C-alpha cells in the first residue's frame, strides 16, 4: 500500500511541467491565462483558483507550473528580462 502511494506521488511529480514566457492574456471570467513561451509557442492554461490571476497583467514575465491534470497550479512572476533573445545592438536599434 505504501509503495503504491509513493509511486502515485512520483507519477504526479513527473507529470508536472513548467512553462516560462510573457503573458499575452488574462481572463478572470473563465479562469484562463495565455502566455507566449520563450520558444515562441502560445500556451493557454486554466487555473483552479482565480486569486492567482489577480496580480497578473499582460507582458508580465512568468513561470506557469501545471499538474498532471493540466491545470496551472502555480503562476509565479519572474524578473523582467527586456533583453532576452536580443543583443544590446538590436535593443538599441542598431
Write the layout of secondary structure elements.
Elements lengths: L1 H14 L1 E11 L4 E6 L4 E5 L14 E6 L5 E6 L10 H4 L3
Antiparallel strand pairs: 1-2, 1-4, 2-3, 4-5
Give a short summary of the structure.
The protein has 94 residues and is of the alpha+beta class. The chain is 19% helix and 36% strand. Mean pLDDT is 79; it is low at 83-94.
Question: What keyword list fits this structure?
Answer:
5 strands, five-stranded antiparallel sheet, 2 helices, OB fold (Dihydrolipoamide Acetyltransferase, E2P), 94 residues, alpha+beta, disordered C terminus
Major β-sheet strand ordering: 3-2-1-4-5
CATH architecture: Beta Barrel
Tell me how many strands there are. Answer: 5
SS content category: alpha+beta
Report on the architecture of this protein:
This protein has 94 residues and is α+β, with helices and mostly antiparallel strands. It has a single domain, classed as OB fold (Dihydrolipoamide Acetyltransferase, E2P), CATH 2.40.50.140. The chain is 19% helix and 36% strand. It has a 5-stranded antiparallel β-sheet with strand order 3-2-1-4-5, with no helix packed on it. Strand 2 and strand 3 form a beta hairpin. The protein is globular.
Amino acid at each position: 500500500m505504501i509503495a503504491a502511494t509513493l509511486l502515485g506521488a512520483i507519477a504526479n511529480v513527473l507529470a508536472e511541467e513548467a512553462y516560462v514566457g510573457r503573458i499575452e492574456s488574462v481572463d478572470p471570467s473563465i479562469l484562463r491565462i495565455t502566455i507566449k513561451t520563450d520558444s515562441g509557442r502560445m500556451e493557454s492554461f486554466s487555473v483552479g483558483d482565480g486569486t492567482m490571476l489577480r496580480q497578473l497583467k499582460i507582458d508580465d514575465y512568468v513561470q506557469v507550473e501545471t499538474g498532471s491534470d493540466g491545470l496551472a497550479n502555480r503562476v509565479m512572476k519572474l524578473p523582467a528580462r527586456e533583453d532576452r533573445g536580443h543583443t544590446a545592438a538590436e535593443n538599441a536599434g542598431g
